[in-house]
Amino acid sequence: MNVLAVPEASFAVGIDLGGTQVRAALVDGKGTLLARAALPTDKAGGPKAVLGQMQSLVHEVSRSVGLDKVPAVGVASPGPLDARAGVILTIPTLPGWVDIPLVEWLSDWLGKPVTLGNDGVVAAVGEWHFGAGRGLQDFVYVTVSTGIGGGVIADGRVLQGRRSLASHLGHMTVEASGPLCQCGNPGCWEALASGTALGANARAAVLQHPASRLAALTEPLTGQHVFEAAAQGDALAQELVANEGRWLGVGIVNLLHLYSPELVVIGGGVSHGFELLHPIIRQHVDSYAMPPFRSVPIVRAALGSDSGLVGAAALAFMSLAEQP
Amino acid sequence: MNVLAVPEASFAVGIDLGGTQVRAALVDGKGTLLARAALPTDKAGGPKAVLGQMQSLVHEVSRSVGLDKVPAVGVASPGPLDARAGVILTIPTLPGWVDIPLVEWLSDWLGKPVTLGNDGVVAAVGEWHFGAGRGLQDFVYVTVSTGIGGGVIADGRVLQGRRSLASHLGHMTVEASGPLCQCGNPGCWEALASGTALGANARAAVLQHPASRLAALTEPLTGQHVFEAAAQGDALAQELVANEGRWLGVGIVNLLHLYSPELVVIGGGVSHGFELLHPIIRQHVDSYAMPPFRSVPIVRAALGSDSGLVGAAALAFMSLAEQP
């Protein structure tokens, strides 16, 4: 069973915890986002202050239907975290977040069951139930933005592993002699193909190519600028996009060989350049994946930046379906 | 349920198809190997001749208990293959093996249910039910010999994926700028850390180091020679072992981050050097895996070169347990 048997008139709240914003949404059983709200993450206040923000966001987005009509809440959080135990182990971008029993605290405060998941995995769940992966048994969701994360649906279930720590997709070494990742491991996929890497490559490249359209920009260069300039025909930008696409292709070939998905879904900020990247990724996969893996489609996330929000609500629906 | 509820006095036959030998064994419900037999693989005869060899091996190993006391047969085969469909797609080392419906043919001939699995996955199943991975929910088995293969047990089940093609562990790029793999993909783990790679590195290194004990050998250098010379204190051999251990470590860090196993089990020919390799692998993992993954033990396969044979029988027992 991979499509939730949730009555359309059921409701759940999904929360997406990020380093800059805490977002929440009321979602119905069809995956429709009925209300949303967000607050700037209270970094200085620490975990309890941020959990207080989550609590007030739940109240706010539930107002239209009434909080008593919301039986469960799901939370997507950066990790590493132990989803089964409901504990956040650390969040590199949020100082002071070490071994936080988020599920225990938040479910006490709200008086409702709370389910926690790694943000990449939760976004995968969102795309699985309500997005591009609907109805599939095997698919991989990759989010490419500041870092690279994701989640894996394998044989009709969310791949969890020990302490539910599976599918740290960005932290596979694809070029052992390559640049050091912020995790300390050399040549991680994230260090080579994230939006951060694309921006850094662009900033380094303009120093060598002052005639490029990119060199004329006064603000700090990002991946978004590269995609815009490439679409306008700038040769340097097109070369940077080709490099980005090839590195994405290298990692995707690995994911095909390791998980054998029916579909690869790309989300995150870099997916704004999907039209430009897709032919390059496709060509790499068609050249380097072993033949039985070459026909697997690669598509853009259907839920865009809401995969995690909607996925967190789907996680809540799943937890209800699993109850005896 | 990850320990088979098989009565000890049940029997199954496991077959391990290799490029040089076809092996078969009668195995009881405790995983004990009661009889074994082998034939040189009839490469020239093609698939039907080899299936004939399998048939006669099944008869031979079943003689002591009687063929009617053997309710099912399991086959481990090189791939890629579609285990669910029971079809071998191709076997690079066996010419003429393309889209062979092995399960259909062999079960017709034997009048018994036959189950097929990729050799790496089947060996993982053997170690899971009767070896080093007994009782675990999440573990990864890696076989390092001519190539690198393996299988993944995730969340208490064998990871299958689309067309049961998951866990081609040897074909993840770990050094994109590295040597081309025989699969056509650059820098696969197999191209850098297999026994074949170790032997090739040794043959290249002795040209530069004529004083090494390895340079004195008259036969073609293999990984086994390297381990022996390293154990005897040869500096070049120790350097080659250190390089092999580091590359194994690079791939194992990836497997930890991607699958989050509780245990990593190493089998195959290169595991003969396990005592020498283990401290090097361990040091690499302790340095480069993300902290929550560092405590995962890495051990040698308990069933040695019989993981696949015993695993093929375990596959047969599993198929019986799954019947209505």
TrEMBL record, chains A, B:
The lineage of its organism: Bacteria, Pseudomonadati, Pseudomonadota, Betaproteobacteria, Burkholderiales. It comes from the Bacteria. Transmembrane segments: none annotated. Belongs to the ROK (NagC/XylR) family. InterPro entries: ATPase_NBD, ROK. This is ROK family protein. SUPFAM superfamilies: Actin-like ATPase domain.
